[in-house]
Amino acid sequence: MHCDPRPIGVFDSGIGGLTVLRHLLRLMPEEDFVYLGDTARVPYGNKSAETVRLYASQCADFLLRHDVKMIVVACNTASALALDVLRSHHSIPVLGVIEPAAGEAVRLTRSGSIGVIGTRATINSESYLKAITEVAGERPVAIHSRPCPLLVPLVEEGWEDAPATRLLDEEYVRPLRKAGIDTLVLG
User: Fold this and answer.
1) Of the residues 48, 54, 77, 87, which has the fewest C-beta atoms closer than 10 A?
2) How far apart are the first and last CA of the chain?
3) pLDDT in tens, 12-52
4) 44 with 73: CB under 8 angstroms?
5) Which of 52, 68, 96 is the endpoint of a domain?
6) Are residues 50 and 82 in the same domain?
7) CATH code of the domain containing 20
């Protein structure tokens, strides 16, 4: 059996996608990866859909210049707004993060009450709502979404453990807890 020696390309609008890369390295230690963190233009979540599609296409083009065999879009906003465009323009597989996260949320929830937080663009796209509903099938689910536009800049600055970030997290998540969620997707 012939294994394709080319690397797998992974991109995100910043450094958050490194968690996806870390997981991929654990799952596929025999593979090589090329990672692009577009920190110059982070966050994507406050950009127009057209701009996100342009940035995602540019990131994919960069990875293709490194002869990747597959692209993983580790950015929720780009997965929500540009995955279809990338798939239609490239012959290699292009995977996003929304479907796997939706599947895991449905698998983990006990009550069927799932919260989703993310950038304004990700939440407004309703990508998680659609994906979770599709994965759940006949299983009843209640999806509670909340845009959290201030979290990405704080995480990208390395302030995820700062007291201000913790207060902001609590403020964002409080209504979801009140709604009775037992599973939270960090979109």
Assistant:
1) 48
2) 37
3) 998 889 999 999 999 999 999 999 999 999 889 999 999 99
4) no
5) 96
6) yes
7) 3.40.50.1860
The one-character DSSP state at 6 is S
Q: How many residues does the chain have?
A: 187
Both 106 and 165 in a single domain? yes
Domain boundary (77, 96, 115) is at: 96
**Structure tokens, 18:** 């490194």
Q: 80: Cβ–Cβ under 8 A, 6 or more apart, which residues?
A: 96, 98, 121, 122, 125, 127, 128
Verify that 83 and 116 share a domain, yes or no: no
- The pair of three-digit structure tokens given for residue 98, joined into one six-digit string: 């929304």
Q: Please, what is the Cα angle at 179 between 175 and 104, to 5 degrees?
A: 100
Token digits of residue 89:
């323009």
Q: What is the pLDDT confidence band of residue 2, given thresholds at 50, 70 and 90?
A: low
Query: Are the CB atoms for 72 and 20 separated by under 8 Å?
Result: yes
- pLDDT number for residue 139: 96
